[in-house]
Design brief:
Helix 1 runs antiparallel to helix 6, helix 6 runs antiparallel to helix 7 and helix 7 runs antiparallel to helix 9. This protein has a single domain, classed as Tetratricopeptide repeat domain (Serine Threonine Protein Phosphatase 5, Tetratricopeptide repeat, Alpha Horseshoe), CATH 1.25.40. The strands form two sheets. The chain has a two-stranded parallel ribbon with strand order 1-2. Strands 3-4 form a two-stranded antiparallel sheet. The chain is globular and about 55 Å long. The chain contains eleven helices and four strands; from the N terminus they run H-E-H-E-E-H-H-H-E-H-H-H-H-H-H. With about 200 residues, the chain is mostly helical. The model has no long low-confidence stretch (mean pLDDT about 85).
């Protein structure tokens, strides 16, 4: 909300605080999708037992934007709220997908890096902006993170958008196509590919 309302310095302070708190022992969790290990209660119990500061449980929920919150979401996130191209795609959604696919849902750490990229860019801090992009690229390239991402296609869409903003349309197209290889329907990357192809063709 701070970024979208133009309070960039305040946004930087909040993002720096969130990054400081998001250490290696923080476990991502999602209320809508599950991944391997989610049902292993021993993992969660061990994390809670190892947490000496009981005021901050070591969990980070995915970030969710409902349609009525679209005014406080970055522009590109709005595509996630309209991820289908056809009505047939909507009909293909399973019950649990229908609960969240009209909103935007993204893993917390990739979204943190994306917001840093946008915020530092808005402040004209090119070095910090590129550092945020490097962090996002590094995170997405690390195979260990692929198994702990709940919304890998959305994280790739954010990375693709960063590539677009850098003017690297070919790379953006490759990233969006990678997103589509993970999920080819009900994926906002379908919209992004169309937009980038128009930009490339001039």
């Amino acid at each position: 909300m701070l970024y979208c309302s133009g309070h960039l310095q305040a946004a930087v302070r909040v993002l720096e605080d969130v990054e400081r708190r998001y250490h290696s022992k923080v476990k991502a969790v999602c209320g809508y999708r599950s991944i391997q290990g989610d049902s292993d209660l021993k993992v969660f119990a061990d994390m809670l037992l190892g947490n000496t500061d009981n005021s901050e449980p070591p969990f980070a929920f995915c970030v969710n934007f409902l349609r009525r919150e679209s005014h406080c979401a970055p522009f590109i996130v709005l595509f996630e709220m309209n991820r289908n191209i056809t009505e047939e795609e909507v009909a293909q959604r399973r019950y649990n997908e229908k609960l969240w696919m009209d909103s935007a849902e993204v893993d917390a750490l990739p979204f943190l890096y994306y917001l840093q990229y946008l915020t530092y860019g808005g402040l004209g801090e090119r070095g910090n902006k590129l550092n945020a992009l490097r962090n996002l690229v590094s995170y997405m390239r690390d195979d260990r993170h692929h198994i702990i991402l709940y919304h890998q296609e959305t994280a790739l869409n954010l990375l693709g958008h960063c590539c677009e903003m850098e003017g690297d349309y070919e790379r953006a197209l490759n990233v969006y196509e990678l997103s589509l290889s993970i999920r080819d329907t009900n994926n906002a990357a379908n919209w992004h590919v169309r937009r980038v192809l128009r930009l490339i063709s001039g």
